[in-house]
Amino acid sequence: MAMPDPAETASAPPLEAPTYDVALEASLRECIVGVVRRDEAAFAELYNATVHRAWSVAIRIVRQHEAAEEVVEDCFWQVWREAERFDAARGRVLTWVLTICRSRALDYLRRKDIAEPIADIETLRSAELADDEDPLDILGATERASAVHRALAQLKPKERQLISLAFFRGLTHQEIADASRMPIGTVKTTMHKAFRQLETILGGEGWNLPDE
Questions:
Q1: Share of the chain above pLDDT 90, in %
Q2: Mean pLDDT of 99-123
Q3: Which of the listed residues 54, 80, 111 is the one where a domain comes to its end?
Q4: Are 86 and 64 in contact (CB under 8 A)?
Q5: Cα distances (Å, whole numbers) of residue 192 to 68, 88, 116, 185, 199
Q6: Whole domain around residue 141: which residue ranges?
Q7: For the chain, how many structural domains are there in total?
Q8: What is the mean predicted confidence (pLDDT) over 159-178?
Q9: CA distances from 123 to 45, 80, 117, 145, 205 (A)
């Protein structure tokens, strides 16, 4: 299954409600009817009409090209298998597809070990070290990244996991609650406590932590 280039979709608003288009919705519903009959042409039409939005949702949550490909592929396999479960009375086709994609993306995060955000730290470090920056700025950026990594290592695994989801993957409190299967109130309380602990650790090392 061919996936779109993320550069073509990076600016698309991934989790906003899809703009309603009467003609498009009618076409997508016809596609769903065809998919229920196992019409591959109808599935291809549905896929081509919705894959870019699905990719935007996946890449926003998992933040990795290969992972997003896996998520989108899983999403459309589920669409193919469960097309008969679409209920037009409950919403639009695109919303249904994006909901499946979001669920598959969160499932992907649950399957991965996200308690140690080492790769994310390295990504942040690389992004900060531009070739034309002053060497002292580069040194400072590297030291800041190392300080954050050391501070995160001192948190409890669950706290570290939630902070990683928020600050390195950009998930909202509700998305974190879904991914970790925790009540949103517990997520907020745990993250607040972890943030204060990070602030204390980094403050002791002479670093300032941005506002929560």
A1: 29
A2: 67
A3: 111
A4: no
A5: 29, 40, 19, 11, 10
A6: 118-204
A7: 2
A8: 79
A9: 36, 35, 10, 10, 22
